[in-house]
Amino acid sequence: MSSVTIAQSVVSSEPVLFPVAKPRERLLALDIFRGMTLIAMVLVNMPGDERFTYAAISHVKWDGWSIADLIFPFFIFIVGVAMPYSFAKRLGRGDSDGKLLAHIVVRAAVLLGVGVFMTWYYNYMGGFTRYHLSNIRLFGALQRIGLCYLLAAPLYLKVKPRGLAIISATILVLYFILLKFVPVPGFGVPSMAKVGNWVAYVDLHITPHHLGLRNEIWEAKGWLGTLPALANMLIGVLAGLFLRSPRSAMEKVRTFLVAGNIGILLGLIWSVWVPINQSLWTSSMVVFMCGMALVILGCCYYVADVRKITWWTKPFIIVGINSLFLWVMAGTTDSVFNLELIKVHLADGSRAPLPEVVARFFATWIGPTNGSELYAALWMALWLGILTLMYRKRIIVKI
Questions:
Q1: Is 254 among the domain residues?
Q2: How far apart are CA 194 and CA 201, in angstroms?
Q3: Cβ distance 314 to 259 under 8 Å?
Q4: Does residue 399 lie within any of the structural domains?
Q5: Any idea which of 127-136, 336-345, 362-371 has the lowest mean pLDDT?
Q6: Into how many domains does the chain fold?
Q7: Are the CB atoms for 313 and 34 separated by under 8 Å?
Q8: What is the pLDDT of residues 190-222, one digit of tens each?
């Protein structure tokens, strides 16, 4: 009996939509896609001088998207894709519901704990005064992933794929109706601006003193946006189930490319009514981003797993295998360089963080923007070297 059949037989004896084959070797495409996403995250979030970055790899201010805005939805999608693979061994050996639930809770708790620590750490290192428990920011990327995982994993174990698809679609439609049509108390007609929307309203009334670092109006990764992010992750789960099915490799590739392009088109059409907006995590954004993710994952699967063209994949695999380690360590160590105590004195009497000083040095040769991005590339190269050593020593940091 296959792993997913074991999980799904709890709720139904009907045949599953994606019958799953026996566990097999690690999916290269998933590690490659994860590695690409993490490398992009470092390059986007850690330039030498934040004042000088290319627009294409800078987050948009509100509505719309850029390459930078693909990263977080992609990572949530990737966590979903990995779920059928990560649970295969546990289900195959017949772990009880209690053991599975304990694993889910512990993993989610670690993600939440590490996420809260990182938001506190960034506050502290950045010189903000808001690092006490009474007003610490509770939300962040890892926290959202942890909450989504806590909800998505039990659904994966207990609900058939068709049910997961229905749950995802229902969340996205109801969330769209809420943001677009349901009046916001004190504001009336919902707004797609930073104020006067349900996302801000819920955060301000549940955790008013624990919002974003530089504002008290809205939280980009707060409570309500976790629901469409859950749909984002469940779509990833469906993709993972489909990849583990016994269907032919080319059928999987074709399905991913067709479904992905349909998702991109539907997301763009939907954005006419509700814009693609990561801060609000709009339904149009989920459909659009998941469509993009399906196309990229499908291409990686075709090239690496089907055609076996892997000469270019090693750096991405090395990063993808230790993605959480890179996420935490690259971010926290980068923050150290912004400490007031180690800022560098410049000739004009001012002081600047070390990354900015290095970027300015590069700027004398290649201009300020190229210098800033070259610093980010070298920072990523440094971590790639560290991860390569870990890879050779078979050191993998995972939950």
A1: yes
A2: 10
A3: no
A4: no
A5: 127-136
A6: 1
A7: no
A8: 888 888 788 888 877 776 666 664 555 666 777
Structural domain including 215 reads 3-392
Q: Within its chain, how far is the Cα of 327 from the centroid?
A: 11
> What is the residue whose two structure tokens read 């190269």?
381
Is residue 37, in this structure, part of any structural domain at all?
A: yes
Q: What pLDDT score was predicted for residue 158?
A: 92
What is the model's pTM?
0.87
Compute the distance between CA of residue 123 and CA of residue 295 in angstroms, rounded to an integer. Answer: 37
Give the per-residue SS3 of the chain: CCHHHHHHCCCCCCCCCCCCCCCCCCCHHHHHHHHHHHHHHHHHHCCCCCCCCCHHHCCCCCCCCCHHHHHHHHHHHHHHHHHHHHCHHHHHCCCCHHHHHHHHHHHHHHHHHHHHHHHHHHHHHCCCCCCCCCCCCCCCHHHHHHHHHHHHHHHHHHCCHHHHHHHHHHHHHHHHHHHHHCCECCCECCCCCCCCCHHHHHHHHHCCCCCCCCCCCCCCCCCCCHHHHHHHHHHHHHHHHHHCCCCCHHHHHHHHHHHHHHHHHHHHHHCCCCCCCCCCCCHHHHHHHHHHHHHHHHHHHHHHHHCCCCCCCHHHHHHHHCHHHHHHHHHHHHHHCCCHHHCEECCCCCEECHHHHHHHHHHHHHCHHHHHHHHHHHHHHHHHHHHHHHHHCCCCCCC
Residue 49 contacts residue 364 (beta carbons within 8 Å)? no
How far apart (Å, rounded) are the C-alpha atoms in residues 85 and 3? 10
357, part of any domain: yes
Nearest 5°: phi and psi at 184?
A: -95, 125
